[in-house]
């Protein structure tokens, strides 16, 4: 395939495939010290091929989590949210707080507004496509997990394979029209928690614009860049836009394209590439009862399509 990155042999790390088309568990890395460059090159080859890499009990602390993430590129951080008035529970601005714990250490109550914010994570999405600069890699670490068997898996959808397996006529239509999708955080929050966000109109905020079908540069494969954040597809009447988006989104969410990863132990780390997979949080009986303290480092996309069709700016959606 033109443009495909040659796959270096993986000699220094062990790979266990988790699904017929994507996802792998990687072992053999000593995370107690900075990861060597030759090992890191193999991790890059693995994430390029698999889209999702699970590292069991990597055991990173906050500092080493940020340090490891920095090897992948420039990191996003929460400073704009703090400037907008939101307090941060974690010691590093480069760690996004995606757990269920309040500033006082208590577990989100059922009527907690931040819980409603997080509900959007339970819809299949990619990180930060609603910002002018989208995310490339995400590194999510289980700092403290709820008891085993109480839920909270993270699920992934293989959007490269989903694109490849679309009916040929639909693929041709998408490629010839080269659609741009308009993404909005407010839209996905509203879909997930309609009551809380009933007075929000996504049209009152800028959309971030990304091609619907685009090349995943590291692998040379095409990717269907869909997500719950997609509000509409530009240039199409409302009904047609909804219909096409739903068709593509539902196609990608089919069980055959989905991998469900169970978090086994504190210290587990999952790396994924938002430009070739979607992901979502799943609930469970832990909700409202047990802590699920999850911390995410987010790497800005370094590819040539990172900014999509957006003005280069630091503006973020979701303030405060
Ligand atoms: C995220 C996210 C899912 C989860 O960190 O971006 O969507 O299972 N997390 O916590
Ligand atoms: Mn996410």
TrEMBL record:
Taxonomic superkingdom: Eukaryota
Pfam families: TauD (PF02668)
InterPro entries for this protein: TauD-like_sf, TauD/TfdA-like, TfdA_dioxygenase
SUPFAM superfamilies for the chain: Clavaminate synthase-like
A molecular-function term among this protein's GO annotations: dioxygenase activity
TauD/TfdA-like domain residues: 15-298
Key words, A-Z: Dioxygenase, Iron, Metal-binding, Oxidoreductase
Family label: Belongs to the TfdA dioxygenase family.
Name of the protein: TauD/TfdA-like domain-containing protein
